[in-house]
Specification:
- The complex is a heterodimer of chains A (239) and B (179).
- With 239 residues, chain A is α+β, with helices and mostly antiparallel strands.
- Chain A is built from five helices and four strands.
- Chain A has a four-stranded antiparallel sheet, with helices on one face.
- In chain A, a hairpin with a 5-residue loop joins strand 3 and strand 4.
- Chain A is rod-shaped and about 135 Å long.
- Chain A starts with a helix and ends in a 31-residue tail after the last helix.
- About 7% of the residues of chain A have low confidence.
- Helices cover 59% and strands 19% of the residues of chain B.
- Chain B is rod-shaped, with a radius of gyration of 51 Å.
- The model of chain B has no long low-confidence stretch (mean pLDDT 88).
- Classes of the chains: A alpha+beta (239), B alpha+beta (179).
- At the A-B interface, helix 1, helix 2, helix 4, strand 3 and helix 5 of A face helix 1, helix 2, helix 3 and strand 1 of B.
- Strand 3 of chain A pairs antiparallel with strand 1 of chain B.
C-alpha cells in the first residue's frame, strides 16, 4: 500500500505537489490573513472613534476645570434665588410683603392657592387682599412682575369706593419654581455653554437682589441648607 | 574529420530527466509562494498584535479622561442647573404678563371724567370693568379708544344705566386678542 502510494506520487508529483502547496496557501489565507486583516481594518475605525471620544472628554474636563467653583456656586445661588427648585413659601411671602409695603399697600389677608404647571415651570399661587391707593396699583403690579423672585400676576380685581383714592384689591400671584434636579446625560454629552444673554441675566439678578435667599432642597456645594428669612415690616416699629 | 556525436542514452532516461527538471522548477515556485504566504500571515499577526497594544493604550487614556470628567461631576451639575435656570428665567424676567399689560392699557385709555369702580382681570385675560361718569361722551370715547387697539379683540357694553343723580354707571367686558 505504501509502495503503491509512493509510486503514484512519483508518477504524478508534478500535479500533486503544486496542488498541496495551493491548498496550504489557501488555508493560511482563509484562516489567518483574511480574518486578521478584517479585524485590523475594523479595529482601526474603532480606535479612531475612541481617540475622538477621548479628545472630547479631555476638552470637557479642561473646560470644567476652568470654572471657578466659588463663582459658579454664587451664580447658581442667584439663579436659584430667582427660580428655586422647590416651593419657598416663606421667601415668597417675604418678597410680597416687602413689595406691597414699598408700594403703599397693606395686606388684609394672604392665603396660599393651588399649583399650576406650565411647559417649563410649576407655580403655586398666593391670594392677596390688599388695601391701599388705587393709583399705586400699577406700580405694585410692575414691582411684582419685575421682582428678582419670579412671579406672575394671574388675575386681579380692584374696587374703589366713591370719592376715595383708596380701594381694595384682590390679587392672585403665581410664584414660579422649577423642579430641575440637574440630571446629567451621558458622560460625553456636551457641556452647556453660558451665552452672553445668560451673563446679562445674571448681572440683572445681582442688580435686583444683591443678597438672594436660596430655599432648602437644592443645596449648592458649601451652601447651608438653612433658610435665611428676609426682613419683614418696618425697621423701627415705633416710628 | 567532422565531429559527430552518438547519443547512447535511452529515450526513457531523457524523458525522465526532462520531467525531473520540470518538477524542480515547479517545486521552487511553490516553495517561494508558500514562503510569501507565510510571511504575509506573520506580518498580519504582528500588525494585529501591535494594534491591540495601541488600542489598549488608547483605552487607558480614555479611562483616565472619563475618570477626570467623573471627578468634576458636581461642577457639571452646577453648570447644567445654572444654564437650565437661566434659560427659563430669560422667558419671564422683565417680561410683563398679558394681564398686567391689559391693565396698563385700560389705565392709559381711561378718559379723565370716568371714575373706575372695579376692574377685574381673570385667568383668560378678559377684563370686566365697572365705572361711572357724569359725561356720557366719555363712555363713547372710552369704547372708541378700546376698539382702536390692536391687542383688544372685542369690547361689549354689558350694562349701562343713569341714576337719578345723573351719574352713568356702566360695565364693559373687554377680551384681548389670543396669541
Amino acid at each position: 500500500m505504501r509502495e503503491a502510494t509512493l509510486k503514484f506520487y512519483q508518477q504524478n508529483r508534478l500535479i500533486i505537489f503544486p496542488i498541496m502547496i495551493v491548498l496550504c496557501c489557501l488555508t493560511l489565507i482563509l484562516i489567518v490573513i483574511l480574518p486578521q486583516t478584517g479585524k485590523l481594518l475594523g479595529n482601526q475605525a474603532a480606535a479612531g472613534a475612541i481617540q475622538k471620544k477621548s479628545a472630547v472628554l479631555e476638552a470637557k474636563a479642561a473646560e470644567l476645570e476652568n470654572y471657578d467653583t466659588a463663582d459658579l456656586n454664587n451664580k447658581v445661588k442667584f439663579a436659584l434665588g430667582s427660580l428655586p427648585a422647590e416651593k419657598d413659601f416663606a421667601t415668597a411671602v417675604g418678597f410680597i410683603q416687602n413689595l406691597t409695603a414699598t408700594s403703599g399697600f397693606s395686606i388684609a389677608s394672604l392665603t396660599l392657592g393651588g399649583d399650576f404647571k406650565d411647559q417649563n415651570t410649576t407655580s403655586y399661587s398666593i391670594n392677596l387682599n390688599l388695601l391701599g391707593p388705587i393709583k399705586s396699583l400699577q406700580t405694585l403690579l410692575n414691582n411684582i412682575e419685575n421682582s428678582p423672585r419670579l412671579m406672575r400676576v394671574r388675575s386681579m380685581e380692584s374696587t374703589t369706593k366713591a370719592d376715595s383714592e383708596t380701594g381694595s384689591i384682590f390679587l392672585i400671584v403665581d410664584i414660579l419654581y422649577a423642579a430641575d434636579t440637574g440630571r446629567l446625560g451621558a458622560i460625553d454629552s456636551p457641556l452647556p455653554q453660558l451665552s452672553q444673554t445668560d451673563q446679562e441675566i445674571l448681572s440683572e439678578l445681582v442688580r435686583l437682589n444683591p443678597a438672594p435667599v436660596v430655599s432648602a432642597g437644592f443645596p449648592t456645594e458649601g451652601q447651608s441648607t438653612t433658610e435665611e428669612l428676609p426682613s419683614r415690616g418696618k425697621a423701627n416699629p415705633f416710628e | 574529420m567532422a565531429r559527430f556525436s552518438i547519443d547512447l542514452l535511452p529515450l526513457e532516461f531523457k524523458a525522465e530527466s526532462l520531467k525531473r527538471a520540470k518538477f524542480y522548477k515547479v517545486q521552487n515556485i511553490s516553495v517561494l509562494t508558500i514562503l510569501v504566504v507565510v510571511f504575509l500571515s506573520s506580518l498580519t499577526v504582528a500588525l494585529r498584535f501591535l494594534q491591540s497594544q495601541k488600542i489598549s493604550q488608547i483605552n487607558n487614556v480614555l479611562a483616565q479622561s472619563q475618570s477626570r470628567v467623573s471627578s468634576l461631576k458636581d461642577t457639571e451639575v452646577q453648570v447644567t442647573v445654572l444654564k437650565n435656570r437661566l434659560t427659563t428665567i430669560d422667558k419671564y424676567l422683565g417680561v410683563t404678563s398679558l394681564q398686567v399689560q391689559m391693565y396698563s392699557l385700560i389705565q392709559k385709555l381711561l378718559p379723565g371724567p370716568i371714575s373706575l369702580s372695579s376692574l377685574a382681570v381673570n385667568n383668560n385675560r378678559e377684563i370686566l370693568l365697572q365705572a361711572n361718569t357724569l359725561d356720557e361722551g366719555a363712555i363713547d370715547e372710552l369704547i372708541n379708544n378700546l376698539t382702536d387697539q390692536d391687542k383688544i379683540s372685542t369690547v361689549s357694553l354689558d350694562n349701562l344705566n343713569r341714576g337719578r343723580d345723573g351719574i352713568y354707571r356702566f360695565s364693559l367686558t373687554i377680551k384681548p386678542k389670543q396669541k
